[in-house]
């Protein structure tokens, strides 16, 4: 629900504004962070687990309710994001009218030096968080508690985001030589199915252990 709400903000309302600063930033937010946050496989896995226990009514109701929640979260996020953007533009316009100008051009990553500095900072932060996640996952993995699952997910998140970004290139390409079904987001579908399969394997392993 939170991921769908924020996706409406950054993937619909503020997407054009963020693209003026950096194309890589908008790709990272939408495909990377939002794409991982809005993965629907966790909810579906819980519904599959309920159906395996013969709770079919709850499972079907949960799937329908989940789709409804996602749709409403995107709608509410788009409405609130539009109002927030209008308020920000109004404040900028008022400040400009009294002599205080707001120029976003200095934030734009359009030079080799800015790209190098930004990549260096991001790589340092990524390496630190990644190593920390792997160490904590190894320490807590023996218990297979919630903390172990959390840090294990953090440790495999970067490769998952990279894979999701590459799979997103398949969206709109279609299937076969005739490129049929272009409307179907093949890359996103493959990413979600793969995530659901991995989560199902982890759930089976946790129950077996």
Write up this protein.
This protein is an all-alpha fold and 209 residues long. The chain has a domain at 1-109. 77% of the residues lie in helices and 0% in strands. The protein has helices spanning 2-13, 15-21, 23-37, 41-52, 56-97, 112-140, 146-155, 157-167, 186-208. Helix 2 (15-21) crosses helix 3, helix 4 runs antiparallel to helix 5 and helix 8 (157-167) runs antiparallel to helix 9 (186-208). It is globular, with a radius of gyration of 21 Å. The two termini are 31 Å apart. The mean pLDDT is 75.
Strand content: under 5%
Q: Point out poorly predicted stretches.
A: none
- What is the percent of helical residues? over 70%
Class from secondary-structure proportions = mainly alpha
Order of helices and strands: HHHHHHHHH
Number of DSSP E strands: 0
Instruction: Give me the number of helical elements.
Output: 9
Protein name: Fluoride ion transporter CrcB
Membrane topology: Multi-pass membrane protein
Subcellular location: Cell membrane
Transmembrane segments: 21-43, 55-74, 116-142, 148-167, 183-204
């Amino acid at each position: 629900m939170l991921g769908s709400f924020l996706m409406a903000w950054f993937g619909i309302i503020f997407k054009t504004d963020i693209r003026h600063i950096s194309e890589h930033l908008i790709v990272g937010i939408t495909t990377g962070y939002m794409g991982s946050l809005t993965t629907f496989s966790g909810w579906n896995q819980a519904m599959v687990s309920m159906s395996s226990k013969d709770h079919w009514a709850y499972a079907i109701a949960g799937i329908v309710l989940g789709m409804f929640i996602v749709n409403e979260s995107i709608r509410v996020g788009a409405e609130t994001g539009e109002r927030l953007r209008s308020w920000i533009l109004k404040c900028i316009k008022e400040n400009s009218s009294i002599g205080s100008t707001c120029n976003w051009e200095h934030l734009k990553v359009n030079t080799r030096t800015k790209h190098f500095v930004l990549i260096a900072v991001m790589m340092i932060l990524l390496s630190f968080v990644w190593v920390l996640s792997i160490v904590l996952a190894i320490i807590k993995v023996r218990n297979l508690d919630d903390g172990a699952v959390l840090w294990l997910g953090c440790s495999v998140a970067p490769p998952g985001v990279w894979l999701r970004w590459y799979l997103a290139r398949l969206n709109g390409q279609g299937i076969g030589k005739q490129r049929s079904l272009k409307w179907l987001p093949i890359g996103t579908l493959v990413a979600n199915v793969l995530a659901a399969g991995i989560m199902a394997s982890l759930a089976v392993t946790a129950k077996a252990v």
